[in-house]
Every structure is written in C-alpha cells, then in structure tokens.
Give the backbone structure.
Amino acid sequence: MKTVAIAGTFDSKGKEFLFLKELFEEIGLKTLTIHTGTFSPLFSPDVSNNEIAAEAGENLSEIVASKDRARATAAMSLGVEKIIPRLYNEGKFDGIISLGGSGGTSIITPAMRALPIGVPKIVVSTMASGNTEQYVGTSDVILIPSIVDVAGLNLISTRIFSNAVFAMAGMLEHKLTKKIEQKPLIAASMFGVTTPCIDQAKSYLESKGYEVLVFHATGTGGRTMELLIQNGYFKGVLDLTTTEWCDELFGGVLNAGPHRNEAAGFCGIPQVVSVGACDMVNFGPWDTVPKQHRKRNLYRHNPTVTLMRTTVPENEAIGKKLAEKLNMAKGKTALFLPLKGVSMIDAEGQPFYGPKEDKALFDALRQNLNRQVVQLYEMDCHINDREFALAAAKKLIEMMET
C-alpha cells in the first residue's frame, strides 16, 4: 500500500489537512502527517513541529516567543527541507502533498524540490498563478490553483482538495507499463531561432542510437539542464544555444543564473558548445522594455517577447564569460563558431544581422579560450545550416566514443 506524506500548517489549516488525510485513507492510501506550523496542531501528527525546528537548529518555544513570523517561516522551511528527503530515502512515503497560501507554499516547496524528479509532488496553493518559478524552480512540483483561499471547507475548496487527492492517488497507483527503450541520453539546448540546427543534429544523433532531450533556453530550461547534467543523466551535452548569458549579463528576463555552462565541465562529461542566439536579450511585451533600451535594435518576436540585438561591447563580454566557463572544464570540450550568423534573425537580410557584433563575440572567444582545455572549430556557415549541425553532432559522438 502506498503512503502519501501530508505536510503543512496543521495549526492554522488543520481542518483542511484533516480532510486530505481522511480522504486518502478512505480510498485506501496510508498517510504520513508532518506539521510545519509553529503552534499546536488540530490533530496529532506523525512528525511534530518540534522535530522540524530542531532540524533547523532552532528551539520551537524560542521561535514562538520571538513573535517573528519571518524567523519562524525560515526555520520551518529549512527544517522540513532537511527532514523530508531523509524520510523519503528511508522509504517512509511515496508522494507528498500540501496546501497553503504564500507562507505555506514557501515553506514546503524547497523540500519538494529536494526530492528526486518523478516523485509525485502536489501543492494546492493560492500562489498557483503568474510567476511560480520561486516555488517550482527546476523541479516537477505540481501547483494546483486553490481558486478560493485555503481557509475552510466549502463547496469549491472541497472539490479542489479532492481533485488533488485523486490526482495524487492516480500517480501512485498507476505505473507506466509500456516499455521504453533505454538509450544513452544527450542534453541539447535550443531556442526558437536555433530550432533548425538542433532538429538536424537531434535527427542525426538519434540515427546513431542516442536519445536527445532538448531544453528550451529560457532560464529555467538552462538551469534544469545543468541540474540533470550534474545528477548524471547524460552521456554527452550538445549545448549549442547559450543565449541565456545575454539575459544574465544585460538584464533580460530569461537568465539562467551565474552557473550556466558549468555542470558538464565540472562532471567531465563530453560537451560541444556554440553561441546560438547570443545576438539577443529577451524582454517581455514591447512596453516592458527598459526605457534606456527603447532606441536599440528591437524585434517583436511575438506579443509577449521582445528581443534586443546585442552590441559589440556586449558581445565581447559574452565571449569572455563563455570562455571563462569553458576553461573550467575537466572533460572533453569543443566550441563551434558559425561565422555566418548565430540565429535565424542573424543572417544576411534579417533584422539582427550583425557581422561586427558577431566578430566581437568570436574574437573574445578566440582570445580568451584556453586551447589546452577547449578545442575550437570555426565553420564558414550559419548556425542553422545542416553542415554546421552535423559537424557538431559528429564531434560529440567522437568525444563520447573515444
């Protein structure tokens, strides 16, 4: 019989969590209850808030006496982030569920993110709308909008809660029976403007017996790819779209943070890298572009995305940063430069065509790469040309198999 961990504030939302517990047990699932609130729970939990506070190096009585909500939230979040992965590794539960507003959601989601991908994780939350990256991160946490506040049992809330219970039950009770052929995995990065390149490389790699997982280079995509590389999922990395550095360095909205392009190198995994879409910084709708950039070369990619062409100085900075990251590699690393353009709209006759800007990027890489660590290949073609895509794919196979 499967067990569901129910974690949350059993003091302020005890009735709601008791509803979950009783419904799970009614349909034949065991429960493991974990109290993350600071006051006395409505019902007796399996894991107390005293235990969670102790995990964070705190004394619960002192937290309560301080009347400091921020301290309490931080302590309970840290404690539960430590205890939940341990309980899972001990086989105490198979999936985890929670309810909450901003406080409850922020307490429990770091712990859920610490669990392996594939472990069912559900939060019914008032925050399940808009930008949820701070809660989901690079994990597979499922956020279900609560519709009404998590503040009582009523016609709407009980329907939403029961849907969440049945969704969890379905994930735990049903298993994939179709056999999926296990092939060596390759990670690849792609943007809309580098799609032809990745599609061609992917097709070639798959014809050679590999399976290619493509990550959309939208910030979260890059971070997720880095995490899975670090966790040992991939035999090789085809990181041809490194555009997230443009946003990281120059204030775009799709940055992947300062540790992009590190995981493969640190783990010694063969990687072929390029400069796909390094001609653009991403912003939201046209009217969200910062005022200081309004006179720049801007391009409406779609109603919700506005692109800004990178300048010569910006390309120099991108090249230096990418070289810095690649020089850290402990494994086989190759950099491919497409001398006729780095994206679909960086080609002759297209709005971001910029030979001077591209040259600044290429020169910065040439000058800053450690050639004893990184192999450099320059090709007189566009990044989306079949010749370029196949050359990169073949080089990756060579590095993986020799």
